[in-house]
Design a protein that fits this description.
Blueprint: E1 2-6, H1 11-22, E2 26-31, H2 38-45, E3 48-51, E4 64-67, H3 76-83, E5 88-90, H4 91-98, E6 104-109, H5 114-127, E7 133-135, E8 147-148, E9 154-158, E10 163-165, E11 168-171, E12 180-183, H6 197-208, E13 216-220, H7 224-231, E14 238-241, E15 245-248, E16 256-261, E17 264-270, H8 276-291, H9 296-303, E18 314-319, E19 322-327, H10 332-345, E20 351-355, H11 360-364, H12 368-374, E21 380-384, H13 393-398, E22 404-407, H14 410-420, E23 426-430, H15 438-450
Parallel strand pairs: 1-2, 1-4, 2-3, 4-5, 6-9, 6-12, 7-9, 12-13, 13-14, 19-23, 20-21, 20-23, 21-22
Antiparallel strand pairs: 7-8, 10-11, 15-16, 16-17, 18-19
Helix pairs in contact: 1-2, 5-8, 5-9, 6-7, 8-9, 10-12, 14-15
Length: 451
């Protein structure tokens, strides 16, 4: 079967492409403004990638078109599919019908930590010899692919609350029908499709309704947004982080801690990651793996060999003792968590934070005040306004306690960063997009400056 994917370079749709190819289908796709890591993953798989949405991409008529949720009415390719009555579906629906329908699905949901926790969980199952399939919104470095399909009964999926397609406004995760469900947290986000937190809670509850009574829901304790959602009805056993599962005896550097289940010691994890968010992610993964038969001691041993996902505080290079990191943070909570984790990790030097607010929620200014508070752990902040932000980003920088400058010229911002950076500094670049390849451009400029 020939499957053509519109919006193929999104992390989710790129995973669909990899799985479809592994199942023996011919896969092609199109997108615009493509950037790593998904573009390089698709190239490595030998999947034909068409730049843009011209209708001549349908000259070889596909058997079905899988339409990504970034596609909308008015797009030439979308209009061609509709006008010519080509068979089409959404990515989540295709995944359910072709992969998930006969699997034990372990789904990881929440506003933050989905990619990291699902990567940890997939690695734990792999370490335990279970060879799970998975689809993750990033590149887990223990696997170096974002998705795969196997003969295993188990499939780990990052369960996103964003909508499925322009013709299916339900959250992606309602298609997944999980047997084991992790709810990491629940905050307001995606203001372009949700009016308020209650809208998001309702979508999460739609997923809760699908978890069977012999399944398991794992969620944090005493988080009002989560408690309110579960109070809408839950027909499945639950375990909680902070009650059933607890973290104790954290060392001074934050990279070793004791894991307890229902008051009983189950192991001590020493690893390379820092930050409370990563400790919480680890417990969620350990709890989910236990539900499918992996002993916590085995899960802890697996996590000592865990390598974090690309673009999650990924160290890209060090030049003249100036470290450059890439991070996917694009929500105030994630930005604060990222900076807090880096602050705990470093022993000297300043943190120079470089931020591109490019998510739809950020563009709308929903998190304005919270955004300013989120970056205060940085020593200096550089913010790039790509021209799509609909509110006073420069004014927010002007009123920041942390020195902050807003730029609408990326080249000028690069020059300023190069002028300010000095040995022992840590430059963390935060964006959920390609950011015009600023990471490699900055490293190249640093190499030239200090060569």
């Amino acid at each position: 079967m020939h499957i053509h994917i519109l919006g193929i370079c999104g992390t989710f749709m790129g995973g669909i492409a990899a799985i479809a190819q592994a199942l023996g289908h011919k896969v092609t796709g199109s997108d615009k403004n493509v950037y790593p890591p998904m573009s390089t993953q698709l190239e490595a798989l030998g999947i034909e990638l068409i730049e843009g949405f011209d209708t001549n991409q349908f000259d070889q008529k596909p058997d079905i078109v899988v339409i990504g949720n970034a596609m909308s009415r008015g797009n030439p390719a979308v209009e061609y599919v509709l006008a010519n009555n080509l068979p089409y579906t959404s990515g989540p629906q295709w995944l359910l019908e072709n992969v998930l329908h006969n699997k034990w699905v372990l789904a990881v949901s929440g506003t933050h930590g989905k990619t990291t926790t699902s990567s940890m969980l997939a690695w734990i199952l792999e370490y335990a010899g279970m060879q799970p399939g998975f689809l993750i919104g990033g590149i887990p470095q223990n696997f170096n692919v974002s998705a795969r399909v196997t003969d295993s009964s188990f499939f780990v999926i990052e369960a996103d609350e964003y909508d499925s397609a322009f013709f299916d406004k339900r959250s992606k995760f309602v298609h997944y029908r999980p047997h084991t469900l992790v709810v990491n947290n629940l905050e307001f986000d995606h203001a372009d499709i949700f009016n308020n937190l209650a809208d998001i809670q309702r979508q999460f509850h739609h997923m809760i309704r699908m978890v069977p009574n012999n399944g398991l829901v794992i969620a944090p304790a005493n988080i009002p947004s989560v408690d309110e959602m579960l109070a809408m009805g839950c027909w499945t056993p639950t375990q909680s982080l902070g009650s059933d599962w607890t973290i104790n005896e954290v060392n001074d550097s934050g990279n070793a801690f004791t894991v307890c289940f229902q008051g009983q010691f189950v192991g001590r994890l020493s690893w390379s990651l820092q930050g409370q968010h990563n400790r919480d992610n680890a417990i969620m993964a350990i709890a989910a793996a236990r539900h499918v038969g992996v002993e916590p001691q085995t899960a802890i041993a697996a996590l000592t060999e865990y390598v974090n996902v690309k673009r999650r505080m990924e160290l890209l290079g060090v030049v003249n003792n100036i470290s450059v990191y890439d991070d996917f943070a694009h929500h105030p909570t994630a930005i604060e968590t990222t900076l807090n984790g880096l602050k705990a990790k470093i022993t000297s030097g300043r943190i120079l934070a470089v931020l591109e607010p490019r998510s739809n929620t950020m563009k709308m200014g929903v998190h304005g005040e919270r955004l300013r508070a989120s970056w205060q752990l940085a020593d200096t902040l550089f913010v790039f306004d790509n021209g799509q932000v609909e509110w006073g980003l420069a004014n927010l920088c002007d009123s920041s306690e942390t020195p902050a400058r807003c730029f609408n010229d990326l080249e000028q911002m690069l020059l300023e960063i190069l002028d300010v950076a000095q040995p022992d500094d840590h430059i963390v670049i935060m964006s959920n997009g390609g950011f015009e390849n600023i990471h490699q451009r900055l490293l190249a400029r640093l190499e030239k400056k200090y060569s």
